[in-house]
Amino acid sequence: MDNFDLKKYLVEGKLTEGIWNIGNPDDINKFIDTLEVIKDDYYAVVGSDTVMDGLDTAIQGAKDLLALKIGNVQAEGKLLKEVRGPLKMELNIKKGEGIDIDMIMDDYGFEENVDGVSVEDLFDEKGFALRDMVIVYDQRDDMYLMDAEDMSKYH
Q: Among residues 92, 68, 56, 84, which one has the least CA distance to residue 153?
């Protein structure tokens, strides 16, 4: 078991023990938000450690699934290796920032980021970014949409 690669295991889709499906990141975020509202609304009705701890556990479990979903897609990294540094930033998109997704898709021509994640999965239903991202030009003047944290790999 010394050579076990969890990312490879997850990318190959072998999510069998305890996880049978991981949905759309937007839907997972909606689930988390709904549970937070339930906690607030019913605190005085079912105010016990057992109930609130259970809701907290469900929220954390959903956050873990969200991280697996995003990590699973990012682990593929099919285009990231093509980027040639140094990079010039065109647009900086902060997590939680509202953006016109059509602008990303139509004006910049992106259907997915360098990790193969579709543009629709990078933003929630209202157009708010789910992570810090940048649009950059590389040394060949090719344009890429990538996670902001990946920029440092090319400077």
A: 84
88-93 and 143-147 as β-strands: parallel, antiparallel, unpaired?
unpaired
Residue 105 · residue 114 · CB < 8 Å: no
Beta bridge partners of 118: 112
Q: What are the structural domain ranges in the chain? A: 6-76, 80-154
The angle at the Cα of 76, spanning 72 to 78, to the nearest 5 degrees, equals 150
Which amino acid does the sequence have at 75? A
List phi, psi (to 5°) of 48: -135, 155
Query: CA 145 to CA 85: how far, in whole Å?
Result: 14
Residue 5, pLDDT score: 61
pLDDT tens figures, 64-108? 877 776 655 444 444 445 677 788 889 999 999 998 888 888 888
